[in-house]
Design goal:
413 residues; 30% helix; 4-stranded mixed beta sheet; alpha/beta; globular; single chain; 5-stranded mixed beta sheet; 25% strand; 23 strands
């Protein structure tokens, strides 16, 4: 689906959709429990549905899990499924079959699992790996500069094993708050995780033979990763700003950091109960270390084009391995619209303040690129065409409905 956006200022009120990060974790914890638990997810997405469907496979003798395009689903469930099953096949589509699963794969191989790939295809999905052998406990060692999703997957799996285990992570651990979110969900389900930091090593100690005992009902939080696009729209707004509702201001979600970044850039944010108001103010360029908040980079790049001075986004090399190469994608999209942007090996440098022109950009089959460029339309002096805008369904199917509700205007071409 290609769309044409007619530039308008966005303003009004929007409700946060369900957090994908929190929703994945609650669904997995509930599925590992022997007692019934009601997980409330108000708004779903393709990634959440991928996890739901894969968890249904846990009852199969040899599960075949189609993770669709969801990296979280794959990386979380690889250790979990092999803690429960002797054999399983993992499938995926889009860019997922090419995205890395090392060093998680090697650590699982060192603990009883054997990985193969015969490159089979089924219903448009490609085989990612065929795994045999039950996962065994012990000491798992991972570098801190790889995906935190590997650590989350192991954390969910280790209480199910017979043996006691440890995950040793070299510091600093990037995206640590995502792991903190996992530990928080596990502890609410009466799983004990002991955390120790010593001599440059972060260790998660987990006893085996534990049982997941979640409460009768668990409610997924509002999503800070996706509400960040509307917070940015409010800061860029020339009208009354944007009110964002349905948020937990004490959330462990890493992307709550969008508030601090907006404030550092000069934006105005007012918080009250479960809502906030984001309002326009003169923005200035800043240095941002995004090692713990990689999902914010696309919208931060858009904000930087409106900020006076230069913004440096660094420690972002892992973005090259997302649904798209997000550094290359944002460089391409914003440079086509006239932005002063430099792509670097591990980040972006953007000198802002001169506005954007209209034009045509690719959505790169990446939900966050499409959403970021939709907000960027506010800064354009002419219509903006985004190719492949349907990618938003991955995490935010009603994005364009909310975009329109805030005064956005778009037409399907």
């Amino acid at each position: 689906m290609n769309i044409e956006i007619i530039p308008h200022t966005l303003a009004g009120t929007v409700d946060a959709v369900t957090s994908k990060s929190h929703g994945h974790r609650l669904l997995i914890a509930a599925a590992l429990s022997k007692k019934p638990t009601n997980v409330i997810i108000d708004t779903s997405s393709q990634d959440i549905e991928a996890t739901r469907d894969c968890l249904k496979q846990l009852s199969a003798h040899i599960p075949i899990l189609d993770c669709k395009e969801s990296g979280s689903t794959l990386r979380f469930l690889l250790p979990v499924v092999m803690a429960l099953k002797d054999e399983a096949m993992f499938m995926g589509s889009g860019r997922l079959p090419e995205r890395p699963i090392s060093p998680l794969k090697e650590e699982m191989e060192a603990h009883g699992c054997v990985f193969t790939n015969k490159r089979r295809q089924k219903d448009g999905a490609k085989e990612i790996c065929h795994v045999k052998g039950r996962l065994k406990g012990g000491i798992f060692t991972l570098p801190g500069n790889v995906s935190s999703q590997y650590i989350t997957g192991l954390l969910f799996a280790l209480p199910l094993l017979k043996e006691n285990s440890q995950i040793r992570v070299t510091l600093p651990l990037e995206s640590k708050r995502y792991v903190d979110l996992t530990v928080d969900v596990m502890e609410k389900c009466h799983i004990e995780v002991y955390v120790e930091e010593k001599d440059g090593i972060l260790t998660y100690k987990v006893q085996g033979r534990q049982q997941y005992l979640p409460p009768a009902e668990m409610i997924a939080e509002g999503d800070w990763s996706n509400i960040a696009f509307w917070i940015a729209a409010g800061v860029l707004s020339k009208e009354a700003g944007v009110i964002c509702r349905g948020l937990n201001h004490r959330s462990i979600q890493a992307d709550r950091e969008i508030i601090n970044i907006c404030l550092r850039m000069g934006g105005k944010i007012l918080e009250k109960h479960s809502s906030l108001l984001a309002m326009e103010a003169p923005l200035k360029g800043i240095h941002v270390d995004v090692s713990g908040i990689p999902d914010l980079v696309p919208i931060l790049a858009v904000m930087a084009t409106a900020a006076k001075g230069t913004t440096h986004i660094h420690n972002a090399a892992r973005l090259r391995l997302k649904e798209s190469d997000r550094l290359a994608a944002m460089y391409d999209c914003l440079s086509r619209l006239g932005a002063d942007i430099i792509e670097e090996p591990g980040g972006l440098t953007i000198t802002g303040g001169k506005g954007l022109k209209g034009g045509t950009v690719s959505g790169y089959n990446d939900h966050r690129i499409v959403m970021a460029m939709s907000v960027a339309s506010m800064l354009c002096d002419g219509p903006l065409i985004i190719e492949g805008a349907e990618a938003v369904k991955k995490s935010y199917p009603k994005f364009f409905e909310d975009f329109e509700g805030l005064g956005g205007e778009y037409h399907v071409l």
